[in-house]
Write a structure and sequence with these properties.
The chain is an alpha+beta fold. The chain is built from five helices and ten strands, in the order H-E-E-H-E-E-E-E-E-E-H-H-E-H-E. A hairpin with a 3-residue loop joins strand 3 and strand 4. The chain starts with a helix and ends with a strand.
Length: 220
């Protein structure tokens, strides 16, 4: 009887686990997330090649952690950054960018910083392991990247770019100067124009938008 009950519990646990995974993945085997703002909606996929960051983002999105947080740091031609829990209901002019969920995520560095990629921010000094903030992320806007720029970065960082990566950087641009330093864990596949709209807003001396740019994040 005890063995029979254990088998039933195991089957129930397995069923629940499969349902949970199915709710987090689409038919293409990737996790899709929706990031809504007043400037429009972005759809992004999370890379399976960076499972620690993928699973952490899924966890936070399911908890509603990101809802009503701000894109608190915006630099046109570079990136838009959000995910600081201290930004929720933050007063005007309040310094932001140091908050998080109380933990960091081990680095999974390797993906290029093309326009539209999602990457994990880093907080705190003394971080030789390049661990990521537990919640803060940025979305790359960037600028055109020449092959000469990539050659310089390749020599300085000991990074080898494939012909396909060079071609994509030349085509869509990005922030290749961050390669090898931060974990890229996803990319926007719809709504790239939203990045441009947010990046163009007026900001203060700390790069915080003068008018709050809130986000709502959910799994698709």
């Amino acid at each position: 009887m005890i063995k029979l009950i254990s088998m039933k519990l195991l089957k129930l646990f397995t069923f629940c686990l499969l349902i949970s995974l199915a709710m987090s993945c689409n038919q293409d085997g990737q996790t899709h997330v929706i990031i809504e703002t007043e400037y429009g909606t972005m759809e992004a996929v999370l890379y399976n090649e960076t499972p620690l960051h993928r699973d952490n983002f899924i966890k936070l999105a399911k908890e509603g952690f990101y809802n009503d947080l701000l894109f608190h740091r915006v630099i046109e031609g570079f990136m838009i950054q959000g995910g600081d829990p201290n930004s929720k209901d933050a007063s005007a002019g309040q310094p932001l960018g140091s908050g998080g969920p109380g933990y960091r995520v081990d680095a999974e560095i390797g993906q290029p910083h093309y326009k539209g990629t999602l990457a994990a921010a880093r907080t705190g000094a003394g971080n030789p392991e390049k661990k990521s903030s537990g919640s803060q992320f940025y979305i790359v806007q960037g600028r055109p990247v020449s092959e000469a720029n990539l050659n310089n970065i390749s020599k300085a960082r000991n990074i080898t770019y494939s012909p396909e990566q060079i071609a994509k950087y030349k085509q869509v641009g990005g922030t290749a100067q961050l390669d090898g330093e931060y974990t890229v864990f996803g990319e926007v596949i719809s709504g790239l124009d939203v990045i441009d709209k947010i990046a163009a807003v007026d900001t203060d001396q700390r790069d915080r938008p003068l008018q709050d740019v809130k986000m709502q994040v959910r799994l698709k």
